[in-house]
Every structure is written in structure tokens, then in C-alpha cells.
Amino acid sequence: MVILITMEKYIGKERTKTKKRKKRMRKMDWRMRNLGVRRSIEWFGLLSYIRSLLQLLINWVLKRLFQRKFLT
Q1: How high is the pLDDT of residue 21?
Q2: Which residues cross the membrane (predicted)?
Q3: Which of 61, 57, 19 shows the shortest CA–CA distance to 11?
Q4: What is the DSSP annotation of 21-65?
């Protein structure tokens, strides 16, 4: 990493500036994309969690109903 920086200094400072700016832009873009992906994943996880809870509740209710039917 240090070697690259020194080499760039010898080649010219203007180029490093543009390169750095490009790098920063790419980093920002990647971060934004990542945030979007992470948010969607969280939302999906939440939905699946709710669904699983509902399923558990329904199963429990059905079991109780069947037990009562068989008992009476």
C-alpha cells in the first residue's frame, strides 16, 4: 500500500487526486448499495419471523381444539 502511494507521488499528484476521488465515490456507492441490501434482508428476516410466529400460534390453537374435541 505504501509503495503504491510513493509511486503515485512520482507519477503525479493530479492523478492521485482523481484516483482518490474515484475510490471515495466507489466506496460511497458500495456503502449505499450495502445499506439497501442490508435493509431488505432485515425486512425479509422480520417478515419470516412474524410468519413463523403466526404458524406456531395456529398450530398451537389447532392442537388445543383437537384435544378438546377428542376429550369431550
Answers
A1: 75
A2: 43-62
A3: 19
A4: HHHHHHHHHHHHHHHHHHHHHHHHHHHHHHHHHHHHHHHHHHHHH
Give the pLDDT means over successive 10-residue stretches in the chain (72 positions).
Answer: 54 64 72 68 80 92 82 61
Q: Structural domain boundaries of the chain? A: 47-72
Judge contact between 16 and 8, C-beta under 8 A: yes
Cβ–Cβ < 8 Å for 19, 8: yes
pLDDT the model gives residue 54: 93
Write out the three cell numbers for 45: 428476516
Contact 2, 9 (CB under 8 A): no
